[in-house]
Amino acid sequence: MTERRVPRRPVDWMRVPAGALSGLLAGFAALAVAELVSAAVRPEAGPVVAVGGAAIDRTPAPVKDWAIQHFGTNDKLVLQSGILAVLALLAIVLGLLALRHRLLGTAGVLLFGVIGGVAATGRPDSTGLTDALPSVAGAVVGAALLYWLAGRLALHPVRAVPETAPETAPEADPEAATGAAPEAIPETASAPAGVDQRSEWDRRGFIIAATAAAAASAGAGALGRSLNAAGGQDAIASRNQITLPAPASKANPVPKGARLRVPGISSFVTSNKDFYRVDTALVVPKVNADTWSLRIHGKGVSRPTTVTFDDLLRRELIERDITLTCVSNEVGGPYVGNARWIGVRLADLLAECGVDPPSKGGPADQLVARSVDGMTIGTPVDDVMDGRDAMLALGMNGQPLPFTHGFPVRMLVPGLFGYVSACKWIKDIELTTFDDYDPYWVKRDWARKAPVKTQSRIDTPKPFARPKAGTVMVAGVAWAQHRGIDRVEVRVDDGPWQQADLAAEDTRDTWRQWSFPWKATSGGHTLTVRATDRTGEVQTEKRTRTIPDGASGWHSVVVTVD
Ligand SMILES: Nc1nc2c(c(=O)[nH]1)N[C@H]1C(S)=C(S)[C@@H](COP(=O)(O)O)O[C@H]1N2
Ligand SMILES: [Mo]
Asked: Could you tell which of 419, 425, 441 is best to mutate to test the pocket of ligand 1, judged by most ligand atoms within 8 Å of the CB?
């Protein structure tokens, strides 16, 4: 035995989880402080929101589309949880790093502050350098905490103390006093120059500091959360004050025959709370209608104008039923909804600003709408001004727009997918050309122009349903906004196409319900639907992906008849 074994004590390996924990605590403190500071700056400037927003903007179109389809409106929750999980892992790494290299670990935390700050100030809706404050303040606090905790974890050589000395042993090492390390005694006794071979770290100091930090972070984070949640009170108040005037041009009542009484069919009017939501906003913008304005300017705008919400309320209001569809909607998917909107005619407003559509010699063929959150949406000027009910909408199903659907004002153009027509939280309209400017989604591989594709969907029976043999009502909706639906057919297995019963049409800008009483025989069956629009075009069987201009193909449902 030539080697002397340095006594290993359980307390030493505890440094590793303690190091990981200090990283996690530093990360938690950083995010909590950032949340609190973001309540003072803007909720959108928080690091997770900023990095999440930057990630959304950089996500390749197919991945984004996949996320919308698989997580739906939860895509944002999934993204933020993912970011938090990655941050937790990195925090653990930094905590372990700080065990050996205290300054390096600390610097790592600061680096994340810089990344968050750059992401926040680089957002298209950033209001300036102050947007970096939440990330930077959070990182400074997190770094300081990690530095402090790593200090508690540093090993100090322990002076040899006779462990039998009753007055010091309990303080030097409570475990020794309880006899947890009896084998240490002879070796300690042989240590040279009275110095112990072992090292110690400040467990007590660590536990106290860690507990205090966790509690303070939880407090700061909770406070920041509630302040952020309570934010936008002025916007909420401005929305509560609004009484929408009676529209000068009312929508016709929905014809009685437009609503079929078939259990399981989509309601003809989609309620605001059930209306699908697709956007890139991790924090729903809360815009104050009293201070909101919309600027109209650009190529061929001889009278650039800025309008306020009151200006819009004083104009002639139109009320229209319009079905809105998302380009990311898969065949059979849920991203389509029909509402009764109130707004002002966009074409009139443009004409007053001196805008001529290209078909009348105007120089601008693209209208680019910008939102308060930096979204840009490009629409053909000819479509907006060809007489259809393109509008700046203020009301949805009798209410001011919900915040999630664009309060105070959004655009709508019947017949076009949302991403080329339906800018929410709009604040700016610029007349330009398709050659000169690519808006947000076009930069991300989606088509410049995207009229809605003729589509039909089976709402009932649901896939893999087990209806009883006999008459089974097959029913659903079909849409080809601004062209109108003229026919819907259903096919059972490989049989012939059979005419479905079409509900009455509301307008050609809305979807149309249909039903088909099917004499179901027992066994497995595939039901397929297809629609024909008023141009006579039959919905194509050809399956395409949603990118670049919307999915096509027939919707099928497989059922087993008992
Ligand atoms: N500001 C903003 N407006 C937006 C979007 C967005 O991400 N940001 N998404 C568009 C898309 S892709 C669609 S389909 C519709 C969806 O409107 P909804 O959420 O009210 O259903 O809004 C459009 N307007
Ligand atoms: Mo969309």
From this structure: 419
